[in-house]
């Protein structure tokens, strides 16, 4: 049996996460409108291709393989978040079909496990590189996190940064009110 290194374990984890994300994206595509479903299926195909990298490519450049897998997972998570945002906006404008939209949003939020796995792989890669943290990050960590009622006093950029730290996805086009709502949950 071949010896497993940290790099090969991280690569395997990323490939497994990409494969799982591809399966979830295919399932989610079945619940979406045509245009969104087509996009989701193409992203699922890309993730499946990324998850079936040849052993030779993994051995030659594992970071590239991991990057491709993580990119595919992130693209699926972004598309799922976008679908969730569309479902929320449709729900606000047409309450009669809210159960269907709720189901779509629920499925879109099911991408969190794949995103968590991708973040785990990214963290592994970052610790291997051992790059020093930027000075601005140290300053941000020293300030206490605002309470939920203080969220409205933050800027949109600060809210987006906080959403990123909390692991949310699909928030890049949210308004300030939507970001405050997302972070207060």
Short description:
The longest helix has 32 residues, at 62-93. This protein folds into 2 domains: 1-131, no CATH class; 132-185.
3D architecture notes:
Helix 1 runs parallel beside helix 4 (62-93). It is flat, with a radius of gyration of 19 Å. It has two domains: 1-131, no CATH class; 132-185. Residues 137-141 have low confidence and may be disordered. Helices cover 74% and strands 0% of the residues. It has nine helices and no strands. The chain has helices at 6-29, 34-51, 55-60, 62-93, 98-108, 112-129, 135-142, 156-165, 176-184. The chain is mainly alpha-helical.
What are the key terms here?
185 residues; mainly alpha; 2 domains; 9 helices; flat
């Amino acid at each position: 049996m071949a010896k497993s290194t940290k790099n090969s374990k991280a690569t395997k984890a990323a490939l497994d996460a990409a494969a799982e994300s591809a399966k979830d994206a295919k399932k989610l595509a079945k619940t979406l409108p045509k245009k969104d479903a087509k996009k989701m299926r193409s992203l699922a195909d890309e993730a499946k291709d990324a998850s079936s990298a040849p052993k030779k490519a993994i051995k030659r450049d594992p970071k590239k393989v991991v990057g491709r897998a993580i990119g595919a997972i992130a693209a699926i998570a972004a598309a799922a978040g976008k679908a969730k945002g569309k479902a929320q906006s449709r729900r606000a404008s047409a309450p009669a079909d809210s159960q269907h939209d709720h189901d779509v949003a629920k499925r879109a939020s099911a991408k969190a496990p794949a995103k968590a796995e991708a973040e785990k792989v990214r963290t592994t890669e970052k610790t291997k590189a051992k790059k020093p943290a930027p000075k601005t990050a140290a300053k941000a960590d020293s300030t206490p996190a605002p309470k939920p009622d203080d969220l409205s006093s933050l800027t949109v950029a600060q809210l987006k940064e906080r959403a990123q730290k909390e692991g949310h996805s699909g928030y890049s086009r949210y308004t300030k009110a939507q970001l405050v709502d997302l972070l207060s949950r």
